[in-house]
Fold each of these.
Amino acid sequence: MLIDYLLGRCDQATRRQVELRLEEDPEFRALRGDLENAFDALKLLGWPEAPEEQADRTLARIASAGQSTAAPTPHQFAGTGRPTFSLRELAAIAAAAIIMAMLFVPWARQARNRAFQGKCAANVGQIGTGMKNYALDNQDSLPLSHASKAAWLPGLGRNPVSNSAGLFQLVSGYYAPVGVFQCAADDDAAGEVFTVNYEMTDFPAAKYISYSYQHALGTKLLSRASSILLPVAGEMAVLSDKTPVFENGRFHAEVISSSPISSRNHGRSGHNVLYLDWGVRWRQGARVGVNGDNIFLVQGEEEYDGTETPANATDSFLLPAWSGKNEIQK
């Protein structure tokens, strides 16, 4: 998007989005400077002109190579008793193939991961657009799960309430399609969509949602127009690739001690995060909220039983992607 902006190839809406991010994001401004320097360097490189006789020489070499590499006739093979390739030649070919594989496979894996990362960012951006439109229709408030109970992990004698029911309102209200809630890099994702009917209030299974959403259980509305949140909208995380701290219905304390804490969606290399200004940013580690807030944990809490709530208005606390009772492991 930034390259298109510098080359003058983006539309007015995208240009405005880039300009807003350039005002707010120092890293993005630094990237723009690097790209501008690269473009300036390329402009200094002249296009070399080939000599007039270059075409004739090239055609002559192609013709010569064609004669020297012409397929041998059967008479040339008759009675020789020797293999077409020597063992040394075969070993050289095998070594070259191994070297090429060693170079190509990591590159291909990196290219695949970058493609998944970009596709995931597009998904999160589309969810953000749906959330923005939902807020415009609902007095700047983000969707709630409207649950009377706030327990989002299973406990003795209780079933959890799924926080993803809030996000499902974007589906049932036609603000976002069901497919964008699955990350291509999520190994647990279904890779398919489900049919929505009027009786549904949540995603039918964990495999249909790969993203964690800000704690939205209860009746307290999260309002973007809040005098507390509006000044920090660019830092207030409200959605990301699914949390690694709460998976399969339980709290994983060992993850907290790991560094950095990153979603499993992208092999723990990082995660796409949606902020309250509707911007999507790729982040590494969990301390990417307001003033370095850990977006996957409650401020000051180290033990969890599934009833915790955000410590304050600017405390991002992204709950498990899905906590439906049918797939919970107790």
Note: Confidence is low (pLDDT under 50) at residues 326-330.
Amino acid sequence: MKARFLLAAFLPVLLVTAAWSAENALFLQRDLFHQGENGVHTYRIPALVETKNGVLIAVADARHDSSRDLPADISLVMRRSFNRGEDWEPARSIQAVKEGGVGDASLLLDRSNGRVWCFFSYGPEGIGFWTAKPGALTGPTTSQVHAIHSDDDGATWSEPVDLTPQLKNASWQAIFAASGTDIQTSTGRFLVPLVVRDAKGVIHSLNAYSDDHGKSWKTGELLDAGTDESHNVELKDGVILQNMRSGRNRAIARSHDGGATFGPVTQDADLIDPVCNAGIARYRSGPVDALVFTNAASARRENLTVKLSYDGGETWPVARTLHAGPAAYSTVIQLRDGSIGVLYERGDRSEVEKITFARFNLAWVTGKQQ
């Protein structure tokens, strides 16, 4: 039986870094998941959200026997913080299965009612993104997208619901929801980025969307061949900017209908990328309306960097390295107090040694007082 309820013994969470680069510049870090801890081979794939009540929820893959993707033995674990990341509850399992595995979580806050959604991949025994088969809309031969939700800041979670029949085209070979943090647009629409392998085995980005708070779902158009894991952000004019893993630079596209269809896909030469997942969020505080982007800004998985754009992603004039060594997946959010939270993979020798939470403000990124 592979189901696990990982209730870790409490261990003090140590302050990794606390630095002041200007009079009012805040920066702190906490390592939340460590390779080999609690009998887990490797923790991967960060997801992060702040609830309506200000509780931080961090979710990650607990890859029990190896660092491999599905169909490996994987469950989802969670830690929570009630003081903006200073201290964290012990890790506990929120989703595990008897056969197969679950992973690649993404989190979304419904602003209307405070419900937190967790979307994730379920791989039946032997089924992952590269071994799934076309034909069935769900079942033991195909990869699946499931969802759970919490109405009490992550204290308890619902039973999983299989969304795959609403999302999958029968001709597609595989499907999964991209990990990290998802958005609810100004219209109330949920946007959940997906990745599919089409009938010919070609990978594409696209979005799943719901206009009734998660009761029913539709999918938008497939973006260009070779686009992959992505995140999106709503700009001040309501345009959805999709930022996608695609080769050695991030690919971008813009949508004027809420993320269903898109204009041309282009490569952003300012956003070098090692073919990895990244994070993007809109930041609004006082007169500042900016985009915050995080990724391993290198040809290799290293140099986790925070970048700012003040013109809707046209240019990225501000950048600061968060971790110069090995680093990989990340996700970024604005916190209710105006600071910024990032959950990311990093290490000294390998990019998957630990998953770290960082909290800082704009003064730290820019090196200037705000």
Note: The radius of gyration is 19 Å.
